[in-house]
Amino acid sequence: MKRLLDNGTAPDSLVDLIRRCEDVGRVDGAVPPLFDEIIDGLHRIMADLIATPGQQPIDTPWIQEEHVTFIELIGRGGYGEVYLGTWDGKEVALKKVFRGDMGRDLYTAFAAEIEIWSGLKHENVLRLSGACLTTAFPFIVSPFMKYGTALSYLRSVPTTTYQRIKLMLDIARGMAYLHSVGLVHADLKASNVLVADDGTGLVCDFGYAKLESATRQKGADPSERVGTPRWMPPERLLEHTSNKEGDVYAMGMTAYEIWTLERPFGDVPDARLWSRIIDGDLRPCCDSTSVAMPAQLKSLIERCWAPEPKDRPSFEVVEQELQEILFVCPTDIPMPQEPRAVETITAKVAVKRTKRDELNLNVGDVIKVLGRFAGGLEFG
Ligand SMILES: Nc1ncnc2c1ncn2[C@@H]1O[C@H](COP(=O)(O)OP(=O)(O)O)[C@@H](O)[C@H]1O
Ligand SMILES: [Mg+2]
Q: Record-annotated residues binding ATP (predicted)?
């Protein structure tokens, strides 16, 4: 910091904060900044540093607002909206925050996503093209993928069983790469996978991603409490921690989505699922899908969402097994482009931890039945 101040490259936010602190006791009537103001100031400093040429700790092309045009809203998520737009005349996707007055948490989350994403380079990970933080509505730029997410692609383009497994393999490769550089994605699901023009799967959305080393403090990060529960493992729902094993669990759910195009557990509301996933080991049922799953794929998916994290395979193993499954998969079996009706989606209670008989249940009935199995507890 002293270096920044001495060589005159410190951002204004840093100079202001230091002056306010120095004035205390020196200038009549000067009051020290409140703790909250200091924290807020530090966040602004961080953002200023990221946006100051030559100071950014990351390798991101900084884009000027006037070179970009927003055309059409194509997606909406946790803290922002995604638009189809142009950057210097090229089609791009523009992810921007909802509002200009970014609170501290929002700014941190946005800067963290850019920082993590900008360091990633892999053929199965969506590329970051650039970002702009020096505007009322900061935004991130990435290449526009016309097919959109894995789900929209599979619903609009006829595919075979082989192509579905290949898409799973692409995701496993992208995830194995993330894990190899020490990152946890923490929000893997089919809607966070995009498909390139040649059908290649690309892992995207690093809004919850973090260094594995930063995930070891139990319950330390409030962002662990949000996310998408039906893709979350029991331990994350219970202890609010994300880790590599949790990503593997989410891979199981994502592979299930890609095979069936179904949302795991149909339309049962999140709040009614939590306790059943934690206590009952409730999982989607792979036995009754409209096209039968190859036995090896079913076994892999079920190991990915094993109740105990230690029983889940690593992404290297997932990748290797998917490759073997693909190797023997016929290339001409077409897959449906629509999911089954919601009423026919089933869930199952794993036998492993509960030592109960295996049950095949319609998700609509699952609540009542689990209530009986859990000793007459009232659910819902
Ligand atoms: N590069 C892109 N090309 C096409 N669609 C995209 C692109 N990036 C995001 N989207 C769309 O926007 C949605 C939200 O993007 P995402 O990065 O997942 O943000 P959020 O954190 O808001 O979930 C995606 O599910 C997808 O539909
Ligand atoms: Mg998303």
A: 95
Q: Is 35 inside any structural domain?
A: yes
Q: Is the CB of 82 under 6 A from ligand 1?
A: yes
* Nearest in space to 246 (alpha carbons), one of 178, 195, 194, 294: 178
Distance 16 CA to ligand 1 centre (A): 37
Residue 307 in domain: yes
Q: Whose CA is nearest to atom 24 of ligand 1?
A: 75
Record the pTM.
0.82
Number of domains in the chain: 3
Which residue carries 């306790």 as its tokens?
A: 275
Ligand 1, atom 9, lies closest to the CA of 82
d(CA 27, CA 60): 41
Domain range enclosing 201? 150-373
Residues of the chain with pLDDT under 50: 53-57, 219-220, 225, 351, 353-359, 367-380
**Same-domain status, 154 and 137:** no
150 Cα: distance to centroid of ligand 2 (angstroms): 12
Q: What is the pLDDT of residues 134-149, one digit of tens each?
A: 777 889 999 999 999 9
